[in-house]
Specification:
Blueprint lengths: L9 H4 L8 E13 L3 E7 L7 E6 L5 H6 L5 E10 L7 E12 L15 H6 L8 H23 L3 E2 L5 E2 L11 E2 L26 E3 L4 H11 L1 E9 L12 E10 L3 H22 L1 H10 L4 H10 L3 E4 H10 L16 H12 L3 E7 L15 E9 L3 E9 L3 H10 L8 H8 L5 E7 H9 L20
Parallel strand pairs: 3-5, 6-10, 12-13
Antiparallel strand pairs: 1-2, 1-4, 2-3, 4-5, 7-9, 8-9, 10-11, 11-16, 13-14, 14-15, 15-16
The structure holds one RNA strand of 77 nucleotides.
Length: about 475
RNA sequence: UCCUCAGUAGCUCAGUUGGUUAGAGCAUCUGACUGUUAAUCAGAGGGUCGUUGGUUCGAGUCCAACCUGGGGAGCCA
C-alpha cells in the first residue's frame, strides 16, 4: 500500500517552488495531447482558471489507464513537481502514478476542447461548470457574494433572513408564485364557489416572496442597519436576457438614513463590490475580458473611479425633451422612463453612472416618502451602462398618516399590512433602503450578456431543468 | 405577451431560381510522430435537414401551425 500524500490544489501548486518534490493533485482532464512516447494532460480542479500540465511518459504506464484518460475524465495524479521545459506554464508534474476516478466516454461526453456557444452550454448546465467560462463566472459570483457580506458586516449591518413564504402582496412588485398544499384537482371551496384558502396549510393564501423589504424595515427600526440577501421570485412572463423567475436580491434597510445617506451608501456599496472583485478575481476577470468583452476591465475601473452623477427626475425629463434623439416612447413628465431613456442618459448624455431622484409619486411604490410638493417622492434609481436600472430605492414614508393616506388612495388592503403601519405608530424614525438584483450585478461585473449565464440553474418561463 | 431572426452530423456552420447519392471545419475512431500548448499530418465512420400538415412529378429549399433558442420591446431587479 502506497503512502498517500496530501492532495494540493492546482492554484497552490502553480505558485509552488517545491521543485523535485513528490506532489498529489486531483482534477478533470481538459485536453490530452502528445505522441506515442510522451503525453501532456491539462488538468483542472476548479481552484483557479489555469490548468496543471501533467507530463506522462506513456511507456511507463499500462495502456488501459492511458486509454481512459480522455477529455472530461477525472484523475488522481502523483508525481514530481518540476520547472516546465515547455513554454506556456512555469511548473508541471511528471506523473509517477495515475488513478482514473471517473472515465468520460469521448463518443458521448458533450464538451470538446473547442469553444461552445453559451446557448449550447445552457442546455448542459450540469456540465458547464467544467468550462473555463463558467468556472470563471461562478468563482466571480462567489467573490461578489462574499464581498456583499463583508461590506455590510464591516459597516455594522446585520444580515437578516426574511421569510420566503409570505402572505402579503402589498408591494405589488409583480406576479407571485402561489404556495399551497390543497388538492389541485378538487380544492375545498367557499360558499361563493372560490378556493377556500382557510383550509390551506397556513390558513390563508400564501406566495413566494417578491421582496424582503417590508420585513427588513421592521428590523431596521430596532437594529438600525440590516440587509437581506436571499432568493426572490417573480412569476412574470418575462423573456429577456435580464430576467429570471428565481433570483437573488440584496436589500439593505437603514434607520436614520435620509435619501442622501441612501445614495451615498448605494454608490459606495457598488464601488466596493466592483473593486473587491477586481482585486480578488483578477485571473477570471481577465479571461472574461479577453473572451467576451474587451472593454470589461476598463468599464469596471471606470465605475470605481468616477463619481456617479446625481440629478432628479424632472431634470432628466428636461434633458430628454431637449435631446436631439428619436425615442420610440414619448417623454412626458409623469410617465416612467423607458430603457431607451435610461440608456441615453447614462451612455450618451452623462457617460457616467447616474442616480435619479424625486420621481412622480404615481409611478412609484406606496411606501416611498412623499415630498412636500405633493407630486414627487424621495425615490432613487441607480442607472448603469448596458443594464439600465441596477438599484431601486427610496427614503421610506415614516409618517403614519401620510402612509395610511397613500395606502387608502391606492386601495391596498390595510388588513394585510397592519404590522407595517404599526411600526410607524410606535417610535417611528426616518429610514431608507434599496434593492439590488444580484444577478444583474454579476452580469455587469462578468460582462455576460445573458442573465441565464450568471446563475447556476436558471429558472425562466417554461424552463426549470436541473 | 408582442416584434424579429434562426433551427441541417456530437459542436459551429455552408447548401444557388425547388431537381440525381446533403457538404466543410472541429470533435470522435484508426495510423504516424520523444516536449505538446485549441499540437501537427494521413485515413475512416457519422444525417428522420426541429415537429406535424400542406403545395408540387419532385421539398433541406415554398406555405401554415406548433415546439425550441437568440436579439429587441413590455413588465421589472
Amino acid at each position: 500500500m502506497r503512502k498517500e500524500i496530501k492532495r494540493i490544489k492546482v492554484k497552490d501548486l502553480l505558485v509552488s517552488k517545491s521543485f523535485g518534490k513528490e506532489v498529489h493533485v486531483k482534477g478533470w482532464v481538459r485536453t490530452k495531447r502528445g505522441s506515442k512516447k510522451i503525453g501532456f494532460i491539462a488538468l483542472n480542479d476548479g481552484s483557479i482558471i489555469h490548468n496543471m500540465q501533467i507530463v506522462v511518459d506513456f511507456p511507463e504506464f499500462d495502456e488501459q489507464t492511458i486509454k481512459q484518460i480522455t477529455t472530461g475524465s477525472c484523475l488522481s495524479v502523483t508525481g514530481t513537481l518540476v520547472e516546465s521545459k515547455g513554454k506556456g506554464q512555469n511548473v508541471e508534474i511528471h506523473a509517477r502514478h495515475i488513478e482514473v476516478y471517473g472515465t468520460a466516454d469521448p463518443d458521448t461526453y458533450p464538451l470538446q476542447k473547442k469553444g461552445h456557444t453559451l446557448e449550447f452550454l445552457r442546455e448542459i448546465a450540469h456540465l458547464r461548470f467544467r468550462t473555463n467560462t463558467f468556472g470563471a463566472v461562478f468563482r466571480v459570483r462567489h467573490t461578489m457574494a462574499y464581498a456583499v457580506h463583508k461590506y455590510f458586516n464591516d459597516k455594522g449591518f446585520y444580515y437578516l433572513h426574511t421569510p420566503i413564504i409570505t402572505s402579503s402582496d402589498a408591494e405589488g412588485a409583480g406576479e407571485m408564485f402561489r404556495v399551497s398544499v390543497l388538492d389541485d384537482l378538487n380544492p375545498p371551496k367557499t360558499p361563493e364557489g372560490k378556493v377556500d384558502y382557510e383550509k390551506d396549510f397556513f390558513g390563508k393564501e400564501t406566495n413566494l416572496t417578491v421582496s424582503g423589504q417590508l420585513e427588513a424595515e421592521l428590523a431596521a427600526l430596532a437594529l438600525s442597519e440590516v440587509y437581506t440577501f436571499g432568493p426572490t421570485f417573480r412569476a412574470e412572463n418575462s423573456n429577456t436576457p435580464r430576467h429570471l423567475a428565481e433570483f437573488w436580491m440584496i436589500e439593505p434597510e437603514m434607520a436614520f438614513y435620509d435619501i442622501n445617506d441612501n445614495m451615498d451608501l448605494a454608490e459606495d456599496f457598488l464601488k466596493f463590490i466592483v473593486s473587491y472583485t477586481l482585486e480578488n478575481s483578477p485571473d477570471d476577470l481577465e479571461f472574461l475580458n479577453k473572451m467576451y468583452d474587451k472593454e470589461l476591465l476598463e468599464r469596471l475601473r471606470f465605475v470605481v473611479e468616477k463619481e456617479f452623477i446625481r440629478t432628479n427626475y424632472t431634470e432628466a425629463i428636461k434633458i430628454l425633451k431637449n435631446a436631439n434623439e428619436k425615442f420610440e416612447f414619448p417623454v412626458e413628465w409623469g410617465s416612467d422612463l423607458k430603457a431607451e431613456h435610461e440608456r441615453f442618459l447614462v451612455e450618451k448624455y452623462y457617460k457616467r453612472s447616474v442616480i435619479l431622484t424625486d420621481y412622480p409619486k404615481d409611478i412609484k411604490a406606496f411606501y416611498m416618502k412623499q415630498n412636500n410638493d405633493g407630486k414627487t417622492i424621495r425615490a432613487m434609481d441607480v442607472l448603469f451602462p448596458r443594464l439600465g436600472e441596477i438599484i431601486g430605492g427610496s427614503q421610506r414614508e415614516e409618517d403614519y398618516d401620510r402612509l395610511k393616506g397613500r395606502i387608502d388612495e391606492l386601495k391596498i388592503p390595510v388588513k394585510e399590512l397592519w404590522w407595517y403601519l404599526e411600526v410607524r405608530k410606535f417610535g417611528t424614525a426616518p429610514h431608507s433602503g434599496f434593492g439590488l438584483g444580484f444577478e444583474r450585478m454579476v452580469q455587469f461585473v462578468t460582462g455576460m450578456s445573458n442573465i441565464r449565464d450568471v446563475i447556476p440553474f436558471p429558472r425562466t418561463p417554461r424552463s426549470a431543468e436541473f
